[in-house]
Specification:
Blueprint lengths: L6 E12 L12 E13 L2 E18 L2 E10 L9 E13 L2 E8 L5 H4 L12 H6 L4 E9 L4 E8 L15 E8 L5 E10 L2 E12 L2 E12 L1 H17 L18 H7 L4 E7 L4
Antiparallel strand pairs: 1-2, 2-3, 3-4, 4-5, 5-6, 6-7, 7-8, 8-9, 9-10, 10-11, 11-12, 12-13
């Protein structure tokens, strides 16, 4: 007998700046910011309340050309088996000179437009599976942005490539990124980006059309891994198996033609993040 389940997700977000008890005067005064996103989920005959995100941070200016941001996140596990965690999200200093902005520290990587956008303004409760699978997360490194008053914006960066809250570069290879966005007419944004390590390249194409209170967004990502990746991962698994005779053998190494998981299979084929049409006044 076939069983069916219905999942209902309701998310509520509240954001704002919290005043300090003793705030310094002037343009470089620090400001406490934060937001909370709560969620109710109903799956079949079970229901759950949880805190999806609770972030608190401080940001301000050091000089007229240098600013900083420190932010941490509290995320509830939602179940008794998963404990709540606290972790840093943004830890960086930004240096500004004319149209140039250099960011040093841990920050968002400039690849996917859906990942770059804050979760407080997303049209859906979660980012798409493809973006979660392929777009690099926050990382430690240096990125540069050139944003003039014209129709072109450029981004580039060099990161450790190990992800959020990892100060080490375990494989000794850096992650390089480049992104360009052009605005040919009012309300239309077209962009392309790439992220690469010696044996992995991720590509992204994006488009946004905004007309009044309606916006349509589309994004397409795909990843290419060289055969060297499969050989190296297979060698690492064979060494682990030889050190642990009780370990069972695993499947062949990941590549664009032999995915390891259904989620990776969707991402490796370059399935686009679903376009969204929403009322901008409700985000």
């Amino acid at each position: 007998m076939r069983s069916t389940s219905l999942r209902c997700v309701l998310s509520v977000a509240a954001a704002g700046a919290l005043p300090l008890a003793a705030r310094a005067q002037g343009p470089t005064a620090p400001k406490v910011t934060g937001y909370v996103q709560t969620r109710f989920e109903a799956i079949a005959d079970s229901a759950l309340f949880k805190v999806r995100r609770a972030r608190l941070g401080v940001q301000g200016g050091l000089t007229p050309w240098a600013s900083y941001k420190l932010q941490a996140e509290l995320r509830s596990g939602g179940t008794g088996a998963t404990a709540a965690t606290v972790a840093a999200t943004d830890l960086y200093v930004a240096l500004t000179h004319g149209p140039w902005i250099a960011t040093i520290g841990q920050s968002k990587t400039p690849l996917s437009v859906e990942f770059i956008r804050s979760s407080t303004v997303l049209e859906l409760p979660e980012r798409s599976m493809v973006v979660d699978s392929l777009a690099p997360n926050r990382d430690v490194g240096v990125k540069i942005e050139w944003n003039s008053t014209g129709p072109l914006t450029l981004n580039g960066g060099v990161f450790n490539g190990d992800g959020i809250n990892r100060a080490a570069n375990r494989d000794k290879d850096f992650l390089y990124m480049a992104r360009a966005v052009v605005r040919p007419i009012a309300g239309l944004h077209l962009g392309a980006a790439a992220a690469g390590k010696p044996d992995t390249t991720t590509w992204d194409i994006e488009g946004t059309l905004e007309r009044g209170r309606v916006a349509a967004r589309a994004e397409y990502l795909w990843r290419h891994r060289s055969p060297r990746t499969s050989r190296r991962e297979a060698g690492m698994r064979s060494r682990r198996t030889s050190c642990n005779p009780s370990a069972s053998s695993s499947s062949a190494g990941f590549s664009s033609s032999t995915p390891m998981t259904p989620r990776a299979a969707i991402a490796s084929r370059g399935t686009p993040a679903a376009p969204s049409i929403s009322s901008r006044g409700t985000t």
